[in-house]
Amino acid sequence: MANFSLTEEQSAQLHDVADRVGTPFYFYDANALRQRVADLKSHLPDVDFFYSLKANPNMSVVSTLVGAGTGAEVSSRLELETALEAGAVPARLLMVGPGKSETDLERAVQLGIKAIVVESLDELDQIDRIAAVKGRVQSVALRINPDFQVHGARLAMSGRATQFGIDQSAMLNAVDRAESLPHLRLAGLHIYMGTRILQTKTLYENTRQILNLAHVLIGKLAEPLDFVDVGGGFGVPYFEDEAALDLANVGDALRPLIKSFLDKNLKTRVAIELGRYMVAEAGLFVTKVAQVKMSKNEQFAVCDGGSNLHTAAAGQGFIRRNFPFTLLPATPRALGELGICTMTGPLCTPMDVILSAVDVVDPVAGDLVCIHQSGAYGPSASPVNFLGFGGPAEVMADGDQLTVAQAAPAWQDRLAAQRPKPVRPAKLPNDAPLPEPFNHEVLHRITPLKGLFEKVGTALENDPEAWTTLWDDTTVRALTTIGVPDSHNGFSLAETDLGISDCSHALHVAVIERLAQFDPSCILALPGPSLSGGAVLAAGSDDQIDRFFNAYRSGPQGTFFAVTEPEVGSDASKGTTIVTTNSDGRMVLNGTKMLVGGVARAKIGLVFAQMENTGAAVLVMLSPQDHSDCLTITRLPASGLAGADLCHVEMRDVPITPDMLIGARTPGATTLRDGFMAINGVFERNRPVVAALALGNAAGMLDRLEMAGHATAFAGMRRRYASLLGRLALVLEDQARGRPRSHRISEIKHQAIAFSDDLVRRIPLQAATTMFTDPRLRRKMRDAKAFEYMEGTSNIHLLNAFRSFASEVPA
Ligand SMILES: Cc1ncc(COP(=O)(O)O)c(C=O)c1O
């Protein structure tokens, strides 16, 4: 067996963590986790790996593994949400387990995960029913308990009578049933034979038998399977007589088997789900000696954590044998003779032994005992609450960086959770059916963008260029260029996985609402055509349209729309930005605009101005780079909706040519006024977008509150949200019928913002702790304040009030 000693440096680091975080704790090494995934992929390149969260559901561990390229296998709501928050996309999630709850299944269907692994015939019916209600088709995999057995696993899960999966004898029945149910799609086969396998030949036998069965089964199916999950069960050595798996050897044995299967089944992938093997060796458990004493001639060292935190090391579940360990003396001291000592935890049972009669030199109180091979089935598989000690801290080292990956829960919080509260019969409306278009299939398909939006939303706080990460995503690109005429659009929706080739205005608003749930700031940062695009299309000449949209054939193009002025707000009719004609007959533009979104990085946009000679309103199309010497663009300080990138613009004698003026040449329009009526229509169409942004951001806050256990307290707000979406849907329906009702448009915008404000007001009253502990929630609360500036109001006071308020709200 390998040598498990620690270097001086590692020992010092563990002492340091003990001093700073307290004992007992678990310690994970991020680089070791990444290395494990890299090794697996290099030896088994044709396999899709899934990390089984059951082995260690710590979010930092999961996000390291997901970041290294694994999918995730989950069994509960917490595991599911952990995987999502750690960055796993639904398309790489499997849900496995013999007793999934109805609500967990609903959530999985809502997300449209890669597959729910079905463990009984009844569960097939249950998922079909749930998917029918949601108007979805859910992919499922059948977990089969085969007739064969594989010998060599320390714990066999299949091949005998168990609660897992569907017997092989009933497999064809299950296939018929799955294929006949309209809301299910049979996507995979799953067989999990057992765990802690340490022999290549056992893994070979396991994989061979499963792939054989899969091949026969696929031959009988209407459609080929997407994947066969052959389980895994790769073990790590814990005891002296155990040797580590030789991964090169495993790769050499499995690769030909897998290749031959893939060659015969071109549409099917092979998946392996591993828990222990991915994490065990990257984790240590560290506990401190509290007392050393003799009892009837035997020495005992009682530690502050034992089987309550590390059941596996205490042999509960396996046979009672010692895990590898290292004693880290509290202070350097002359060491005496090797003696025999039993290390125990603090529990009231003689079973609480983590190291039984080990050879060790003189342990004293304050020494650290470090148990190796401890990254898997640690705290989450241990009775952490026995005697009230509570869970341990978990610490992750990533290179030089140390983070507390799980704080040990405070006794105060655990006590608070037990103070009696009345049981309320709460029917939570989170999953209540939503009206068209807010229930559109596309909205589920964009769910995988959530992690990306959250990440970029945070980055935008400090870096206005962070939007480029969004633009790297094909789906985001196509969504950004909705509104660009097909003739100029190089990023068609048809090239995405969204299943649509064009997008109605109503659906576009629903998409924005959904994306705002993830992060509204990102939407404002995206370089789309926005309002000015609509205005150019409504009132520009063919040449102007071509000039405005040309860049979208091949890349992003930031745009801006400058209306608001310091003295008059956004009441365009009172603007003082002016186009004058010099004595030599040349036109120049002068004026000041404020709260102009994105102009600092825009390639083109419109400035609302007046012609000095006629007093007529006009839109001037400008490319800021072409006039940099006549423009001063200053970014405004604002802490909400950073992606809006609000700026102040001063224009001094910007030379204007007639082809930059928009408004007079609308096809069919005889006067400038006709052009502006068309532009006004564009504004009216876009106004519901503000409501969508505010509602989406509010729904994002509700999601976070519900995740933190406040679903009941905020159930009323969730209902109000659903009813406001209903009203917004009616406004969109009017618009789609060509009969927009302006007052309703205005009403829903105000209602949405009032609702969002109300929610923000309630959070500190009803969920203060969550507000303090959830930075994402706080950011959404801050963003909510910023919708005020989108009010389109002419009230300069309101605008200024917003600006000073937003810059004072703490991050
Ligand atoms: C269905 C299933 N998948 C995956 C695992 C993870 O096993 P291991 O940690 O041995 O890789 C288990 C363990 O019980 C399991 O039951």
Number of strands: 28
Given the helix and strand composition, which structural class is it? Answer: alpha/beta
CATH architecture of the largest domain: Alpha-Beta Barrel
The CATH homologous superfamily of the largest domain corresponds to Alanine racemase
> What compounds are bound to the protein?
pyridoxal-5'-phosphate
Q: In angstroms, what is the radius of gyration?
A: 31 Å
Report on the structure:
With 811 residues, the protein is α/β, with parallel strands linked by helices. It folds into four domains: 89-274, TIM Barrel (Alpha-Beta Barrel); 281-410, Lyase, Ornithine Decarboxylase, Chain A, domain 1; 532-665, Beta Barrel (Butyryl-CoA Dehydrogenase, subunit A, domain 2), CATH 2.40.110.10; 672-808, Butyryl-CoA Dehydrogenase, subunit A, domain 3 (Up-down Bundle). Helix content is 38%, strand content 20%. The chain has 25 helices and 28 strands. Strands 1, 13, 14, 15, 16, 17, 18, 19 and 20 form a nine-stranded mixed beta sheet that branches. A hairpin with a 2-residue loop joins β13 and β14 (298-303). α8 (200-219) runs parallel beside α9 and α20 runs antiparallel to α21. The longest helix is centred in the C-terminal third of the chain and has 36 residues, at 672-707. The two termini are 52 Å apart. The model is unreliable at 665-670 and 791-811 (pLDDT under 50). Bound molecules: pyridoxal-5'-phosphate (PLP).
